[in-house]
């Protein structure tokens, strides 16, 4: 049996309910591996999704993540990669079907988790921009910082965050609180949440999807005819929201 096949068989047995196996190690040792694996995965999910745990309660969260681990076993040797599909799981998890905002909370927490481990990037070298001929400006592509995400939330995510942090005791009307467009970005060692106007969101989202400058500007102007790129662009370059330019 090849090493790859042995590893695949071992992983299959590890996530199976049956403690008896003729796999590559004695069956009596399998429970030790399984318990260690489950402990590590549960702790990883708890570390990644503390707001979800806060919102649903620890007991409910433990039940939910056990089901998640069963449906979405780890496929990576790096625990930082685990938990990516938790928002998808919550979207289909019957016990929380009346709590749809949990899906967006999970998306936010996964984005923040990713950004903690994303690479850094130097500020935009203005010489590279100066080297581009003016007639080529409409075809250039600005690049967002690798530790950033642009996400639209339909629920009042900032109020939910305050509630989870104990910063407010106010009751939140999930259906009437209004959504928000966010730039989520790591600045130094902190994850920052910056609300965006509809036009700013549209422009940066277009850049995130690798659209050219002219395409992004056209989309933003359709949202707001008063969108002023000459005012916004220098600020985004200065705070390292935009960190590179390509042609």
Can you tell me about this structure?
It is a single chain. The strands form 2 sheets. A 3-stranded antiparallel sheet has the order 2-3-4, with helices on both faces. Strands 1-5 form a two-stranded antiparallel sheet. The protein is built from 11 helices and 5 strands. With 247 residues, the chain is mainly alpha-helical. It has helices at 3-14, 27-48, 50-56, 58-71, 86-92, 101-117, 126-130, 157-165, 198-208, 213-223, 229-238, and strands at 141-144, 148-153, 180-187, 190-195, 242-246. Helix 2 packs across helix 4 (58-71) and helix 5 (86-92) runs antiparallel to helix 6 (101-117). The model has no long low-confidence stretch (mean pLDDT 88). Strand 3 and strand 4 (190-195) form a beta hairpin.
Strand line-up across the major sheet: 2-3-4
Structural class: mainly alpha
Instruction: Using the 3D structure, state the CATH architecture of the largest domain.
Output: Alpha-Beta Complex
**Rounded average pLDDT:** 88
Gross morphology: globular
The CATH class name of the largest domain reads: Alpha Beta
Low-confidence stretches: none
How many separate domains?
Answer: 2
Provide the helix percentage.
Answer: 40-55%
